[in-house]
Fold this protein.
Amino acid sequence: MNFTRARLAAAAIFLFAALLIGCSARRDNTIVVGSKNFPEQALLGEILAQHLEARTHLRVERRFYLAGSYICQQALLAGRIDTYVEYTGTALTAILHDPIEADPSAVFQKVQEEYRKRFALDVLPSLGFNNTFAIVVRGEDARRLHLASLTDAAPYTRGWRAGFGYEFMERPDGYPGLARAYGLKFSAQPRILDLGLLYRALLDKQVDLVAGNSTDGLLAARDLVILADDKHYFPPYEAVPIVREDTLARHPELRAAIAELAGKISDAQMQKMNYAVAGEGRDASDVAREFLHSQGLD
């Protein structure tokens, strides 16, 4: 009886060890790509994931729509994802909590250095486009009131209703600082809206001004006007892949693969892809695949 139990125990230990080794091997050969919770991020996640699948032997998992920057950052630090695309201005203000800086190269260098030092994360070169916040009004209002900039619009905001995403209301480079910089005072507290509903609320005249993103696809397809940030309040928001340093150490081929994407996406290309998803209802994976093929990166 004791001999049988000993054999069973030994078999159980062997099986458990085999399972651990198998799980470890699967993790070692799997890269997890994350994204935040809006269409552009899913597109960028797909571009990154598909390119890594084409250029490496690694299995790629997708964990998209992980809420905002804070959740993605925590997922990176916890090892739940290995990489995602962030924006330099967001990294500077919302993650590092550093002062707003206008120079793109200075912001990139600061973010790269601090992410490596504080978090053991590597910030790779920009994909090529800058997705800054866009303060948007209806085209009819811009024409009627001769509005081109935020300074032009500020006197009218006392009679307007604003609509912003939750993160824009809370972050240091968001609404509170913008309101101080331009003296914005609305008729009521801004409405908190889902990012996917901002432009619909604006076009339906539920609100009069929203904070979107400069590469949003619907901006090119609807009668909407971006008000110029003439006081240069917003920092640059270059799209940069962020990767765990230990992931790059295990798989050095990732750096070369991701580097092939540097500078490949212009503002206009990103807006066109965003419209294909948000405006035409196309699948992000198909749009990403077509983009990679057009660049010879598939």
The longest strand covers residues 133-138.
